[in-house]
Design goal:
Layout (H helix, E strand, L loop, with lengths): L1 H21 L1 H5 L7 H22 L11 H26 L3 H23 L5 H21 L4 H19 L4 H26 L8 H26 L4 H7 L2 H13 L6 H32 L8
Family: Belongs to the EamA transporter family.
InterPro entries: EamA_dom, EmrE-like, RarD
Protein name: EamA family transporter RarD
Length: 305
């Protein structure tokens, strides 16, 4: 009963995290007076401030002490990858290219598989090969439609896949790693905000209290879904999270098409349809293999005598 309750709570946390991520276009679209780099800098600074409070309240500030050089190098790589991801995403939203940002997160699982092959020498099964081939075809179709490669989508997919790769080998819990990543990025972010303030180019205090509060809110808005995701990851199987992750780009795409009325010609729909077919094949294959492995590891029961 306890295990079932924990999984229910975890699933709710997972849905909450992915729905909040899916609503990001609505939030970041409100920060328009600020440029994408300024928004990124505020996001880094206020997320770090909040995570320091979270670590202090949970008594985990000591976890930042004595980290090895290798760990700090991994943290730096992760910080760079997530900064590129956040900055690209903010740029996509503020330039009314939300549908393309959604495409990036649809592609991301397949890019992660590709990284596993290139870096960890993982072997592809036939279903994964078909999924990757369909994804590559989709990118070609969308490139022809746009007249250029979907740079925002590809950058988002690659940077988040690299971030996941760093997290996979990083010996830190999510709260500590997120705080450490903020420590690495904060000097650059603070320096940029100081520069904007000195040159009069910043928007933090010049567009009313509402705008200031929204920029401050970038911290909790960023941290909350990450904390919910961490709680979900501890309580539900990864396959469940794998299915839930498509909520985010689906909601983002819906916002771009239904609210922002971004252009979606037939050729672009074809590209997205190929991605969805690739993800369906990929996800179905993953579920089948998980169930097969579970059956193979379950102890056989002796017949009742």
């Amino acid at each position: 009963m306890k295990a079932r309750k924990a999984e229910t709570v975890g699933a709710a946390c997972g849905v909450g995290a992915y729905v909040l991520w899916g609503a990001f276009p609505a939030f970041f679209g409100l920060l328009g007076p600020a440029g994408s780099v300024e928004i990124l800098a505020h996001r880094v600074v206020w997320t770090l401030a909040l995570m320091f409070v979270v670590l202090a309240v949970s008594g985990r500030l000591r976890s930042l002490r004595g980290l090895s050089v290798r760990t700090w190098l991994l943290v730096s790589a992760a910080s760079t990858a997530i900064a590129v991801n956040w900055g690209t995403y903010i740029y996509g939203v503020t330039s009314d290219r939300v549908v393309e940002t959604a495409l990036g997160y649809f592609i991301n699982p397949l890019v992660s598989v590709l990284l596993g092959v290139v870096i960890f020498r993982e072997r592809l099964v036939p279903a994964q090969i078909v999924a990757l081939a369909l994804a590559a075809t989709a990118v070609i179709v969308i490139t022809v439609d746009y007249g250029h490669p979907p740079y925002i989508a590809l950058t988002l997919a690659a940077s988040f896949a690299l971030y996941g790769l760093c997290k996979k080998v990083m010996p830190l819990d999510p709260r500590t790693s997120l705080t450490a990543e903020g420590i690495v990025a904060a000097p650059v972010a603070i320096g940029y905000l100081v520069f904007l303030a000195l040159t009069g180019a910043g928007t933090f205090l010049g567009f009313g209290i509402g705008h200031t509060l929204l920029l401050l809110a970038a911290g909790p808005v960023t941290a909350l879904p990450l904390l919910l995701f961490g709680a979900a990851a501890q309580r539900v199987p990864l396959r469940t999270l794998g299915m839930l992750q498509y909520l985010t780009p689906a909601l983002q795409m819906a916002w771009g098409v239904a609210v922002l009325h971004e252009d979606m010609p037939a050729s672009r729909w074809i590209g997205f349809a190929l991605i969805w077919v690739a993800l369906a094949i990929f996800s179905t294959d993953a579920l089948v293999r998980v169930r097969r492995e579970r059956r193979n590891t379950e102890p056989s029961q002796a017949p009742v005598q």
